[in-house]
Amino acid sequence: IYKGCEYNCTFCPRTVFGTPGEKQIMEFSNFQNILSELKKDFSPELTLSFAGLGEPLLHPQFLEFLDLAIRSGLFQEIILETAYYKNSGILYSY
């Protein structure tokens, strides 16, 4: 949901597959559309992973994404891969 990170770790795949300083943010409406399509074709036994080539906690609407994913009833488990920094305190209030 967020491509980009404030760190520059030597082991990160972004050093090979990305542009330094590049940031891309998924629109919340796109996520809603993806979940709608998943509901049509899949049973609620999926796994969702907030991971990839970025830091999901840097997305300004991360809690909205997480809340929608939980309320969708589609996922057996939700995985969050994060460096757990900057605004990580947002999870304590959830």
Please, could you describe this protein's structure?
With 94 residues, this protein is α+β, with helices and mostly antiparallel strands. 31% of the residues lie in helices and 16% in strands. The protein contains three helices and four strands. A two-stranded antiparallel ribbon has the order 1-2. A two-stranded parallel sheet has the order 3-4. Helix 2 runs parallel beside helix 3. The mean pLDDT is 82.
Task: Give the secondary structure arrangement, pairings included.
Layout: E1 2-3, H1 14-17, E2 24-25, H2 28-41, E3 46-50, H3 62-72, E4 75-80
Parallel strand pairs: 3-4
Antiparallel strand pairs: 1-2
Shape: elongated
The parts where pLDDT drops under 50 for at least 5 residues are none
Give, in spatial order, the strands making up the sheet with the most strands: 1-2
| Annotation, overall tally of beta strands | 4
Roughly what is the average pLDDT, rounded to an integer? 82
Overview features:
single chain; about 90 residues; alpha+beta; two-stranded parallel ribbon; about 15% strand; elongated
In brief, what are we looking at here?
This protein has 94 residues and is an alpha+beta fold.
